[in-house]
Amino acid sequence: MRTGDVVRSVNPTFALNAGDLAYDNGTLVELQTKYDPTWGSFKAITRPTPGNHEYNSPNAQGYDDYFFSGVSSGNEYYAFDCGAWRLYSLNCEIACGEGSAELAWLRNDLAANPGRHYMGYLHQPRFTSGSGHGPNDDVADVYAAIQSAGGDVLVSAHNHQYERFGKQNANGVADPLGLRQFVVGSGGAGLTGFGSTQANSQFRDAEHYGVLKLVLSDLSYSWQFLSAGRTQVGSTDLNDLDHPLGTVLDQGSESTNLGGGGNRPPIVSRRRPIHQPAGLHDSRRNRCRRGASRRHVDNDMVTGERSRHSHVRRSGRAFHDGVVLGGRVLRAAPDRVRRRTHEHRRCHCAGSARGSAEDARGPGRVRL
Q1: I need a surface site. Which of 56, 83, 270, 338 has the fewest CB within 10 A?
Q2: Is the pTM of this model over 0.90?
Q3: ∠ CA 43-221-363 to the nearest 5 degrees?
């Protein structure tokens, strides 16, 4: 896989991981031998969140040992600033619904930081059209909390493909002031196909590995999904690089909800991609049949996910879910919740999630 090269080309401020970082169980040894030789080069700028595979180890201890020197308390979920934005690393592998400590913390932190732009990222998606895992109702409460505060974006992984949704509320109803959710499972594991298309799904790609890049600005944001090569669905083998590394497959931009742009449509590039590979679907242009050779270029954000299902097993593979964010001259002031000191950086991110370890270039990851 070449996702690491794509991330390096973005040179982001942060790398965001959305779980399932080293298969099969996220142990310290697996992280050290599968994740660290590749994605370890981004560790200093990584802001991770765990996935279900990390919890195959009791209390995700390997994850805590690798990223937080064994300290779990305060690192299960946390928040930090990126310019005018506040980002939330969420964890719905533990209780995150009504009555949970995490949801109470999230609501309190949102209230204590008014007037910001908000983005959350976590492993399992609230909405997905993927055939491997369905929409997750457990995420609905944190989704609603971020939206109620005027938030804009939720990034997830878990399924092995890329999907972008239009703005909607936690019940899946289109809403101009809702969250835009991305599913980025294209980091390196065998890609899996789509099942029934969910409402408000606007773009789907189950053919390409890739990374999601996000640019977070004062009153707007943009995204780009950057290609890292193509493979056959259900295979972990890279078949070919069907266009230059880092080619934009989906991009767009829009005003933030708190910036007064919630009732305006996103700016969508009408530029055609280099070619139109099979297996890409864009519901907005779409009248496209399943498998039709189409891709839609929209918004300026890039996300990716690395992971695989248990039936696509291979030794020596690292798996990762993540998102890459990119920004202008925005400074990121990390939150004290993490009790770690980080230098100020430009708010620029890039990364990917869910997948097998790539070659020596490193697995796909998310950078901020």
Answers
A1: 270
A2: no
A3: 30
